[in-house]
Amino acid sequence: MEIQYQTEGDIFDIQRFSLNDGPGIRTIVFLKGCPLSCWWCSNPESQRRRPVVMYNEAECLHCRRCESACKQHAVTFTEDGVRHFSDDICIGSGDCAAVCPSQALVMKGSRITVENLINELKKERSMFRRSGGGVTLSGGDPLMQIDFAVELLKACKAQGWNTAIETECCAERENILRAVPYIDHIMVDIKHMDEEKHRIFTGVSNRLILDNIRAVAAFSPITIRVPVIPHVNNTEKEIGDIARFAAALPNVQCVNLLPYHSLGENKYKMLGREYKMNRLSAKSLDNEALEKYRSLVEQAGVPCRIGDES
Amino acid sequence: MDVLEKGFSQPTDRIKALRNAIYDATPTVEADRAELITASYKETEGMPIVIRRAKAVEKILNEIPIAIRDNDLIAGVLTVSVHGCQIYPEYSYDWVEKEFDTMATRMADPFAIPKDTAKRLHEVFQYWPGKTTSELATSYMSQPCLDAQANGIFTVGNYYFNGIGHVCVDYGKVLQKGFAGIIQEAEEAKANLTPLDPESIKKQQFYDAVIISYRAAIQYANRYADLCSQLAAKESNAARKAELTQIAANCRQVPEHPATTWWQACQSFWFVQLILQIESSGHSISPGRFDQYMYPFLAADTNISHDFAQELLDNIWIKFNDLNKTRDDVSDQAFAGYALFQNIQCGGQNEDGIDVTNPLSYMMIDAGAHVAMAAPSFSIRYWNKTPDEFLYRACELVRLGYGYPAMYNDEVIIPALENRGINLKDARNYCIIGCVEPQVPHKTDGWHDAAFFNIAKVLDVTLHNGRSGKTQLGPKTGEMKDFQNLGSLMVAYKKQMSYFVRLLAEADNCVDFAHMERCPLPFESAMVDDCIGRGKSVQEGGAIYNFTGPQAFGVADNGDSFAAIQKHVFENKEVTMAQLAEAMDHNFGYDDATGKIQQWFGTGGGQCCSSDANMDERQIYEAVKRILSANGNIDIDQLQRDLKTGTENCAAPASTGDTAQYQNIKRIMENTTWFGNDDDFVDQITREAGQIYAREVEKYKNPRGGQFQAGCYPVSANVLFGKDVAPLPDGRLAWTPLADGVSPRAGCDTNGPTAAAMSVAKLGHEIFSNGTLYNQKFSPSALAGDDGLKRFEAMCRAYFENKGMHVQFNVIDRATLLDAQQHPENHKDLVVRVAGYSAQFISLAKEVQDNIISRTEHTF
Hints:
Number of strands of chain B: 17
Number of helices of chain A: 12
CATH architecture of the largest domain in chain A: Alpha-Beta Barrel
Radius of gyration of chain A: 20 Å
Number of domains of chain A: 2
CATH topology of the largest domain in chain A: TIM Barrel
Number of helices of chain B: 35
Oligomer: heterodimer
Mean pLDDT of chain B: 89
């Protein structure tokens, strides 16, 4: 198996000691870029392929070095020292973050070769070996960077590591099938069975996604993850539809219900973007409802997990 | 389906009752030992010191009041009252007198001193001025040596004011031969003395002292036999009557003669453990490899039921908790938690390199679950061939959240000991003493707690050209503003370290001589090889292996400070050394409630940051944690930064000019990757910051013919000694706690527990052959179920595979700890690992409690 170690990709985080994204102790690599833009997304910095800069006002020294550094003039300060950022002008050069002396500006997104990334992942190799863990690719959607993802998966396999992926399956069928042979565990999201609602809340149709899931499930075991979102799919009918879809597939190991949380909200502010969930005044879910959904899924004949329970 | 998890049975009602008796007791000082030793010393003036010590032990053992606790199956108590303590005026006494009125209400480890007891002690203390080990030690010390101690560079307070302890004696010899066998050894050695050897004069005194001590110890056991017989005669409950009759019979057989049953083995063991702590106030009298020397007696006892054998073991576990000790107010903040550090181990290999985990090893794990109290300090030895089943079982016990067992790695400790000249067989048989210190059992006088050495303070002094505040304490090695690169700063740091370690060695050796001349211990010495062969006490160099082990803390503070300077001053040039120095001398613009910044540097802090902010932080943290435990991939770094800035930025808009600038400098310095995140640059520089200390220490020799060896663990001194350290370049504010042992600074290991463990493993633990200490804290959810156990086992093995030396765990949620601070009455059973030992959480000083709470909690 030939591996292109010099293939480059864009990632925005590496998270060690992850326990809920596949077996054993795992490291998650978060890849940039997502074909969806779900309202509730708790990693909005992941959605664009290019790097984005997050601004934490509490850390800002108001030294205005970012203003001078930005060649696009996306950053300006008013007379009384209030910082203004124009997201539409920014090209993600990172010049501003590079000169920021505190931690007020942080670049999310960096380009890295498979080789360098593998070297970083190797730091956890004794944990992988001892625990039967490995590497999970997440995002964004890792399949957006298919060449990079495939080479990275192959390189992980060459180290003898277990591999897993978290995907939307919103990509060309051919590309997905290139990656599948190197993945031990596939975790795929389903947000909604209704095409129109799916389009409203995620920005895309669900037709391609569902077709792809059927294709992958034909020959690979999968876990289906369902974010349970108030006002979006928080009804017995909507969860029931997903459960029935899952039950009809051959290789579904489990449906994992992920209750809504708003921890990502602050990130929208730091990105200078709107948190659309506020339009819905969504509240967190109660256990009673979640347990009801669990029994729906189980009645359909599929094992169900809620959150990170094992 | 969980199959690895075996669960734990409930302790018997007897064990529960014995435990409650200790929880319900008010620790109280008793005057009897102090009176008896004083009376004896008055009678023996002019005699050789070793004989005076033996006669003192004899008088104490003959006359000290004794008692049998309700429900107890094993005889032998230090005090008539439960959980009480005695006083040892031959080491030091003046602090007791000073605390007569305050010891009952002080912050750490309060003790009641009844009026009558205070009066009796006051009488006794009249005898002692000029006669103690501490006074002799002081008279040996030079002024610079005393100054360094007064300014918080180090303290040798442990042995300065108390006995040495820190030994694992030959319990096996007593079990097999009895005290009668030891008397016979001494008599034979005495008979073989030749007048041609001038040393034989002193040797004969030593042998006589041993014989006097052991005869008195046999008599002491017989006093318990008599008492039990009397109590049995009066006892109306038939079952208890039979027990008392058997305890009486046991005390007539052991410790004088070999043990013939498991019950007698337990009884014989206990008399050794107890009498050592009557002879001297030294703590960390450690049973060591209990499963090895005790198991043959369990295996041979074919009549005993498993449940009763377990109950006897549990009973010993309880009795470790009945022993108690008071220290001066300040020392008790460093040793918080009524701790005696009686470290007991199971598992590991024997001297031939064969795994010797046995059924008793598993019973000890059950005892830990049954008793669930602060003592003993319970450890397992780990090596590559540790059975999985045993490690899973140990992890299952850790998961209960009592803070034990701690785990020690043979694969690092054995070569570390060989590097100190210990042969392979002895090294393989090592045991753990006190907090974390390895030694060869019954062949070593390790002097393991020789000092707390504050290397963060050495950095503070280095950054002020040898000054601590206004006092010129060390050599002049350059003002901070004049350092042009990290290399020249490290040179200055090394010079200061060299200077202060020399003073440390002087202080330790002064104390060492004082113990040698004034407090030889014949009872202890006869159970340490080769004192009988050499005809001298442990304190005079009778042990085969002799060490002095002063331990450092503040390693991560220094590493992080060096890394921050390198990045922001020398590489990015965002701040100059002069600006940084000025900001530090203004406490980075933050308020200093103590006013010490003003006294030291003639500057004021800013006015920022009220303590109310902490409450908000807690509330936010709690909310975040709850959600995190439910689901989601959240940028944890970011969250922690948010929380931190929430508290520190509170007054920023109001602050003006310089104050704001100093606060900005703090924030710039904090934009650094810290030790604990598996980043090679900062990890290596942290390693160097610690190794510079260790390499200085190992240059020195002690008067017993042994070598100094460094350790790296703080007990809880990192909180106390932080109070002497000015602001540091890593943004740490003045007087706040320092990093604990080899652990990352609280809250700085943001890449999760595995990255933190890998950083810690990089420090080069072999040179710290006096022990290192790594605290990890987990929330129960990360360890739940069989998956959790498997992950936990995997983490332990991976950490050790990467040459970690020691690790211990707190598995408790933060909410529980906070509630225990608010409602101590509801949390008497809450035991936490403080740093080398477990302590009852509610007995800790508030600041130590806060420090435990703020240690990074790894929840996912």
